[in-house]
User: Fold this.
Amino acid sequence: MTTKTAVTPLADSPSEAGRSVAHKYLQSGPFADIYDKVMDGRRLSFDDGLRLWKSNDLTALGLLANLSREAKNGNRTFYVRNQHINYTNVCNKGCKFCSFYAQKGGPAPYTMSKDDVRAKLERTKHIPVTEIHMVAGIHPRLPYSYYLELLDTVKATRPEAHIKAFTMVELLQIQKLAQKPMSEVLLELKAHGLSSLPGGGAEILTDRVHDTLFARKETATEWLETAKTAHRVGLHTNATMLYGHIETLEERVIHLMKLREAQDETGGFLTFIPLAFSSKGTKLEHIPPTTGMLDLKAIAIGRLMLDNFPHIKAFWMMITPPVAQAAQWYGADDIDGTIVEYEITHEIAEDNQQQLTQRQLVQMILEAGRDPVERDPLYNVIERDDSRTLLPEKPRMPLVMA
Ligand code: SF4
Assistant:
């Protein structure tokens, strides 16, 4: 039995003494002007963003981002019970940063039929999930009806779950097949069960990175226009940023500012999700993995620049559970979910866990000194009859204090 209530931000922080030390540190440091802006609720500029990326003062970045995080979401950290389905790895886009799509010497091709999808969902039906998250490659030979039937199948098998599906590049492919305006296509997908969009495929929203790494995929303008169209027909989306490859610091700031401008127009983005680039199995294998330092900076600067985004997610699957745990003090108020299975990043899949139980997520949050809140994909709070049994009798001491 579950009920849903709207989230209202909390006002208090668990560590007032730590907070006062943090304020003094920031007032006397190189970011005193940015601190004033954050405290006054004033927007950071392009130059502010660039200074933040150039800085290695992770303590200052975290403290600044934490001020904004706590003002928006109090001490809460959200998580979701979700399951991922990657229905095909056949793709004609050939993005240089991707290890997921089928290619010679790489993953073998697969495409899931309706029966495959149904069977996959049936296998895990004993696990309570609130969200089915579906993204995949751009298969050149699937018809429009495939996508509608895919949604119908998920809805029929897990009617209680919210379907979050399709990156902007998948949507553009679906629109091409449907030969209708994007708004009509989105409404049709919505009628078949689509409830929101995950916000993938943004990568870095500049022409240089587009032309160098993913020239066959949608441009920055197309990604933003598709997202805004979705917002206008009543579908919320997230927005991602793939960092740690060839992008410059300036391009990271441009990316964030383009998202912020789009959000000013529509208000339809819910969450910003920085995605750490993992080069294994890609055409960019010479690029080393991101560091914990960079992962935390991406979260902190995302929080500070995107003043109109309600939530910032630390996607534990990509940055590891320990970094996601620390990220709750660097701007993140969400650590994603149980996931169950994830195919997109092979290096991560081999080296790390692909699944966390709800109890593990709750304990990761409690250990960091935050209040765990189960959410649905639209950030309505889920109250379950079994919620209390997830809490350990004596939570361990927080690992990180402000
Ligand atoms: S990132 Fe997406 S569009 Fe690009 S090659 Fe991989 S699956 Fe295809």
